[in-house]
Amino acid sequence: MRYKISGKQIDIGEALQFHVQSELGEVVAKYAERPTDATVVFSRSAHEYVCEATVHLSTGLTAQAKAHATEIYAAFDGCNEKMEKQLRRYKRRLKDHHRDRSEPVELLGAASYILASESTEHENEPESLQPIIVAEMETKIPSLSVGEAVMQMELAGSPVLVFRNENKDGLNVVYRREDGNIGWIDP
């Protein structure tokens, strides 16, 4: 597994890098069969250290965790515990409810845009009704079953996930509803 361990405006030493590789590697090896890479970023937020970790699995799923603490090792340990909990849940769901995926998830390329929010001032009418594009990026749309899409959305902690339904070969959306349930759009 490839590791990318870095700090945002802070210096991280060899001892911390070794600690991260050994502890995170142990957790990932316990619950994931073929992890591809892990990214761990340390930063400061006022008086606390922040640790953000992302682990990409060969199945195409991504697990993310984030923790805060007053000491850098404690921040990583909290993040590592959250990662272990996510991977344990992921493995249990695969074991209990889903078939084993023999091939990696197929990813389709797509454009992703960030649009400027509308101004709160209504004094000036906009010249056109076209939104202003702030940023343009490329994103990947995974080919998943509905159950895997819900699992990926929960692992990422995102409110919505667009995916290609591998059973029907069309684009679908799963999202978290205000009542806490999961919604599924199948056009």
UniProtKB/TrEMBL annotation:
<dbReference type="Pfam" id="PF02482">
    <property type="entry name" value="Ribosomal_S30AE"/>
</dbReference>
<protein>
    <recommendedName>
        <fullName>Ribosome hibernation promoting factor</fullName>
    </recommendedName>
</protein>
<comment type="subunit">
    <text>Interacts with 100S ribosomes.</text>
</comment>
<feature type="domain" description="Sigma 54 modulation/S30EA ribosomal protein C-terminal">
    <location>
        <begin position="130"/>
        <end position="183"/>
    </location>
</feature>
<dbReference type="InterPro" id="IPR036567">
    <property type="entry name" value="RHF-like"/>
</dbReference>
<dbReference type="GO" id="GO:0045900">
    <property type="term" value="P:negative regulation of translational elongation"/>
</dbReference>
<comment type="similarity">
    <text>Belongs to the HPF/YfiA ribosome-associated protein family. Long HPF subfamily.</text>
</comment>
<comment type="subunit">
    <text>Associates exclusively with 100S ribosomes, which are dimers of 70S ribosomes.</text>
</comment>
<keyword id="KW-0810">Translation regulation</keyword>
<dbReference type="Pfam" id="PF16321">
    <property type="entry name" value="Ribosom_S30AE_C"/>
</dbReference>
<dbReference type="GO" id="GO:0022627">
    <property type="term" value="C:cytosolic small ribosomal subunit"/>
</dbReference>
<dbReference type="InterPro" id="IPR032528">
    <property type="entry name" value="Ribosom_S30AE_C"/>
</dbReference>
<dbReference type="InterPro" id="IPR034694">
    <property type="entry name" value="HPF_long/plastid"/>
</dbReference>
<dbReference type="InterPro" id="IPR038416">
    <property type="entry name" value="Ribosom_S30AE_C_sf"/>
</dbReference>
<keyword id="KW-0963">Cytoplasm</keyword>
<comment type="function">
    <text>Required for dimerization of active 70S ribosomes into 100S ribosomes in stationary phase; 100S ribosomes are translationally inactive and sometimes present during exponential growth.</text>
</comment>
<dbReference type="InterPro" id="IPR050574">
    <property type="entry name" value="HPF/YfiA_ribosome-assoc"/>
</dbReference>
<dbReference type="GO" id="GO:0043024">
    <property type="term" value="F:ribosomal small subunit binding"/>
</dbReference>
<dbReference type="InterPro" id="IPR003489">
    <property type="entry name" value="RHF/RaiA"/>
</dbReference>
